[in-house]
Write a structure and sequence with these properties.
This protein has one domain (6-76). It is elongated and about 50 Å long. It has strands at 6-11, 18-26, 55-59, 72-76. The protein is an all-beta fold. The two termini are 12 Å apart. It is built from no helices and 4 strands. The chain has a 4-stranded antiparallel beta sheet with strand order 3-2-1-4, with no helix packed on it.
Length: 82
């Protein structure tokens, strides 16, 4: 993933509507790195833990209002840069 890659967003509240945007910022560390109470895996358990890296997306234009906490599906085109 790189800055300025094209993003396609589909929101459950607007079926059939596609929002377009671009990657504007990629976090420097996983969310758990900055957590107030980070999870500890010190019990000798070697299970893989999913880590999330925050990514900011800027919408190109929007003519509908997306509610905070909306359920969306995001596709980032990682094959070509803009």
């Amino acid at each position: 993933m790189k800055l300025n890659q094209q993003v396609e967003i589909h929101a459950d509240q607007y079926p059939g509507v596609k929002f377009l945007g671009r990657v504007r910022d990629i976090g420097i560390a996983t969310n758990s790195t900055f957590a107030l109470l980070p999870s500890s895996n010190s019990n000798g358990n070697f299970v893989k833990v999913v880590q999330n890296i925050p990514v900011k997306i800027k919408l190109d234009s929007i003519n509908k209002s997306l509610a905070i906490g909306s359920s969306v599906t995001i596709k980032i085109n990682t094959r070509r840069s803009a």
